[in-house]
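User: Write out your own:

AI:
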Amino acid sequence: MQWTNKGSALLLAGALLVLSGPLAAPTASGAPALPLAPGASRTAAEPAEPAEGPDPLDFAVVVDQSASLAEKDLARETEAAALLSQGEISERSRAAVIGFGSSEKSGQSPVREVCPLTVADAAGRERLSECVQQLGHIDTARMGPGTDFPAAIRQAVTRLTEARPDGAKTPAAPKVVFLLTDGKLDVADSPEYGTDRDTRQSNGARRLTEELARARAAGVQIWPLGFGSEIDRSALTAMAEGGYRGACSDIPGSVPVMRVVGTSAEIDKALQETFAAARCARIAQGTVGKPPADLTVTIPPLATDGSLTVAKHDPKVRVTYYDPAGRKVPVGGEFDGSSFEVSGQDGPVEALRVKDPLPGRWRVHIEAPEGHGDREVAVRAIWQGRLRSDVTLDPASPRAGEKVTVQVRMQTRRGVVITDPRQLAGLSASAEVAGAGFAPFTFRLADDGRAPDAKAGDVRFTGTFTLPAGATGDLELVTRMAAPGITSDRRPVHARRGPDVPVVTAGLAVERTTVHPGGTVRGTLDVTNNDSAPHTLRLALQDQTPGTEITVAPTPVTAAAGKSTRIPFTVTLAAGTALGELGGRIAVVDTGARDAVLDTAFLDVLVVAPPTWWDRWWKAVTGGAVVVLVLAVLTAIRLVARRRRRDLTGLTLELRDDGRSLYTLTVRKGQSESGAFAFTVDEPYGGPPTLRNVRGTAAATAHVLRRTGSGELLLRSRGGGQVPVRAGEPIGLGDHELVVRGGRTPTPRTRDLPWSRRTRDPRRTGSGRDSGRGTDPGTRTDTGAAAGSGPGAGGATGGSDTYDRNF
């Protein structure tokens, strides 16, 4: 068996639901997280509400002090015993520490009770810390060197079966013996077992069997732990199996079993793991280091009770504790919802007991004066989660022969609802129903998504049973759950068998939703009133998370006589509601029937932070920005394209007279920014006419050549109208002719072309035919001549021949 895993096997046992009436019998009252001893029972005088803390445990640490042990082995046994007595998580538990050897001559005893059975409260743990250190010293005059297992077990069983001082006020606690040894039975030199060595050994083995049978009858478990190479494994197995075989859990690993480690250096860790298996607690292994150092150990969210144990070996080592928030915690008293109590500060083992610890990584700072920091210090945490069961029945008051659905969920004492199924991995659940008029029976609870369970993994365990027809009154229902490290608080819930014919039936439905603080949750109440008179019902909130402010409206409500009514209602959360799962239930009760509960429903609501402005509008803002950007880009592209279509840059204007070229002028970049080019014909006295570009106010009385958006050229002569211009074809301009050639020919949009030209193949109307129309063969020579002479030639080019070659 792998103890690393089995030592963590623990119990979520006895999540108790008592349906009306006092606790009467062990089978119907709900077992504690740890088992009752045989013959133990409860009485009607027992308080219905159990204590908040973990269940108590009575245990004895029985330590081998035979001659085979070296001094370092004794020291390690002493520290291991101190770890158990200091690390116990319940202040109601009792612990005893017993050393044993043999009795071989007058004045010797086989056992040495260094710590009598002591309640492990604050004062008791200090006494245990002091008395356990006596194990480190052997008085050979008072104890022989042998190994008398029968005497050691007899002494431990006798002490553990002593009555508790508080009598019936505390339920019978489980009884456990943790036995440490490095060898085997050795009573060969003990006269009380016979006259010779062989007889003594044989009688010692028989006596050990008798003492184990006595332990079994008294309900005392035996958990042996051996170390070294001389261990009699078969004898240790017989001790584990010979004692009481009851366990704190049905999970494998919680039934007594022997364990062996190689050396005494390993027994502190192994003994704590053994203790956890028997205690139905869990061990969290921390770090180790030599002072000065910061050690860490992690406590999970499920933990409600625990102890941080520090094996410091040297009492001079000083320890300071810091919670996961980095705050130094007190060694006693209350702090931020947790209770603290330190013990063993002047011993080799120190422990900090914590109730409702803050989950996360705890830091333990260790320091020591010079000469006292040469040994490694180890920190561990032993913890148990004591959860509050939240149980609902549908219907809440069942009739005989009616099918009943039971649903259970759990939450911590801090009000945190358990929603992560991984925290309860491996959990098994069942329930037992008992009551007057029928024999008790058991049914299964599951969270597997199979009917009646609504959803797998939602940590709501559901099952059904049919109330027997013979049920006559009070009912009792006990749910039992087993999971590592978890136990239930077993709070009772009361109800009675309902009447055969229901007068008023009600069904609650509350929406499963996500809301913000200050929001509302909708629900409906369906009521059927079979009575001849109206009934007043009230909606009530139950098992709310502490500090949560919730209101329900309307309440009260009236169920009309002889009718079925649907009544909507709302549950309103206060503005300061904490984020997370909203715990609790809503119930509808009949005020005219002593507040009989007609139905209940969980508030299955998740409270989340309200959205910010950006959360609400980021899609609209982003989409609008994209639209604006796209429109801007399209507009810019359109404007650029339009300007390019209307651009006249590169066009050559040729002034002619009777087919003879007089002057040419090329439109340069920037001279037709608006799609128009203004020019005049200058005719100086005695010189040839020239063309000149004009701008500004002079353009109003000049000739203007422009291009339309469709690419068509138009000429507005000074004082005249506007006429179309074809490239290469002369057009009249006063006493002269004007021919326009070249330039960048824009691609007109299809919609701007005449219909006759939209279907024409552009390859069949080449520019060569149009550009050659009306061209004078002598133009190039004349243009060249004209370009080189005459006033105003600064705006002219070297002739159209040069332009045509470039374009």
Remarks:
- Confidence is low (pLDDT under 50) at residues 1-50, 749-807.
- The CA atoms of residues 92 and 166 lie 10 Å apart.
- The longest strand covers residues 377-394.
